[in-house]
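Below is how a single chain appears once it has passed through the pipeline. First comes the sequence as given, then the structure the pipeline wrote out for it. We keep one example in the README because the format questions we get most often are answered faster by looking than by reading.
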Amino acid sequence: MADAASSVQGLKREDLPDLEGVFQLVEGAMGFLPNSMLIMARKPGLVEAFAGLGALIQGPSSLPDEIKRMVAFMASRAAGCVYCQTHTHHQAANAGIGADKLEAIWAYETSDLFSEGERAALRVAQGAGQAPNAVTADDMAALKQHFTDEQIVDLVAVISMFGFLNRWNDTFATQLEADPTAHAKAHMAEHGWDAGKHAD
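Resulting structure:
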């Protein structure tokens, strides 16, 4: 039986000159062009719209970048998307989140490396990444003790953007790129990471 990736292949970058400007912006932010965008390129407007949404959500705001990156990883982990877990862990490391903290993120509830605000944010990300959604009123109340309403909107926007990406990449079994794969093998394998259907 053919796997999901065989049904819709990504297009070749060199065949998409009209999207090269968007690709360069994404590549500049991530360090590589994700294969997910080459699948999206079959609908060029989707690439442009999603890149714009991503830039807005991931761009500057009063919500600390470190929180955004950890929340993106936790939501993707809760959703079970290996492709997005690999990307978000890799990007968090590249953004300067310490290796000790990234190693401990698997035990954020008990590790003393995390503040109460970070725990509240990660708890919401973990609950929101599940289906059905497991976020409780108590989880949101705890979040409001540490973040403004505007910051909470930013936080849920990150979770929701990765909700789209989790489903996109898990459904297409998007092939992982070399750099994030190497990172995951070095830093995530001991916690059970395996590329699975996203392997080259």
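The radius of gyration is 17 Å.

See the next section for the split statistics.
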